[in-house]
Write a structure and sequence with these properties.
The protein is an alpha/beta fold. The protein folds into two domains: 161 residues, FAD/NAD(P)-binding domain, CATH 3.50.50.60; 161 residues, Alpha-Beta Complex (Polyamine Oxidase, Chain A, domain 2). It contains eight helices and 19 strands. The strands form four sheets. Strands 1, 2, 9, 10, 11, 12, 18 and 19 form an eight-stranded mixed beta sheet that branches. The protein starts with a strand and ends with a helix.
Length: 341
């Protein structure tokens, strides 16, 4: 089965959504293909016993006026300045979040309301895993795991560099432009992050802080007092995230959730190791490497006439969700300038 689209965006994280949203606002009809079960990437919220927990990005931050306006336009309960009560002086995964001029916020409903709001009105197909790229006359064919093919003259890969490289490697005899893009992507890598989501009994002590950044732990990056974002009466909930190096070395260790909770208990009290409900998640590609930050997204013209873009959080200054959003928007601007020329 084959289909065609004006623009195909592979990946419905914040970068892909921002790109597609800008293209749609200008009158194009982009199609988003997302291998997962929902949109948003690390802007992820999971419900345990009916209570939302943010287990990827704990809060959003930035200084770009358009990005901040987009965050505040989401129809949700905005928690300005969260987190404001910080325990510890460890290094955050996004240190810029606490520098002068940065604005922070969270949502009482969970951070996933942001990408879900962005996705409204867009053509998004979840569970659509692209496994191979093929060059056709004037287009790229995207071959899906279920056997379907979608062709587009303009394709955007809004993916982690490892995932983009995996797809580019499927092109038979990749042209020079693709080889150059692959060389750029190979300069950077993603950091892993293991996360535990835990809910506690009513008699557990509620931490006086909203976020803990341990100074001395080689295991834990942060402990988020997630229930401090929720309405009164919510059960006590913590989200524990591992350091990237520790997470990378324990991705396939079945005992890592217990190890994270035990380490958190050694820092904050034995009760932390005794939740009444617990779930876990592996983020293999949690965030980009800030040391390999790139100035702008890639936009390539292939010999066949097809156009290929690559964007993501390392293709704009600052890293994190704001950089992903800016990268997607800037790639959309390049596509639209070319369309109108």
């Amino acid at each position: 089965m084959a289909g065609a689209a004006e623009v195909v965006v592979v990946g419905a994280g914040v970068c892909g959504l921002a790109c597609a949203q800008a293209l749609s606002a200008a009158g194009l009809e982009p199609l988003l293909l997302e291998r997962g079960r929902g949109v948003g990437g690390r802007c992820a919220t999971r419900r345990i016993a009916g209570q939302p927990l943010d287990f990827g990005v704990a809060f959003l931050h930035g200084r770009d006026p358009d990005f901040l306006a987009t965050l505040r336009a989401v129809p949700a309960s905005v928690l300005e300045g969260w987190p404001s009560e910080i325990h510890g002086t460890g290094r955050p995964c996004q240190p810029d979040a606490f520098t002068p001029g940065e604005q922070r916020l969270a949502y009482a409903e969970g951070v996933s309301v942001f990408p879900k709001h962005m996705a409204r009105g867009l053509a998004v197909r979840v569970g659509a895993r692209v496994v191979r790229l093929e060059v056709t006359e004037g287009a790229l064919a995207l071959c899906l795991e279920d056997g379907e093919r979608v062709e587009a003259s303009r394709t955007v890969l809004a993916l982690a560099p490892e995932q983009a490289l995996e797809l580019l490697a499927t092109l038979p005899e990749p042209p020079r432009e693709v080889r150059s893009a692959a060389a750029v992507l190979e300069m950077t890598r993603s950091h892993a992050c293991l996360a535990v989501l835990a809910i506690y009994p009513d008699d557990a002590p509620r931490p006086p802080w909203q976020m803990s950044y341990p100074e001395t732990s080689a295991v834990i990056q942060l402990v988020s007092h997630d229930s401090s974002k929720r309405p009164g009466g919510s059960a006590l909930a913590l989200v524990v995230q591992g350091h990237s190096a520790w997470s990378r070395h324990h991705l396939d260790d079945p005992a890592w959730p217990e190890a994270l909770l035990d380490e958190a208990a050694s820092l904050h009290g034995a009760w932390v190791a005794r939740p009444v409900a617990v779930e876990s998640h592996r983020w293999r590609f949690a965030r980009g490497d800030r040391d390999a930050e790139l100035a702008a997204p890639l936009w390539l013209r292939l010999p066949s006439g097809a156009r290929l873009g690559v964007a993501g959080d390392r293709f704009a200054p600052g890293g994190g969700v704001e950089a992903a959003w800016l990268s997607g928007r800037r790639l959309a601007e390049r596509i639209l300038r070319e369309t109108r020329a």
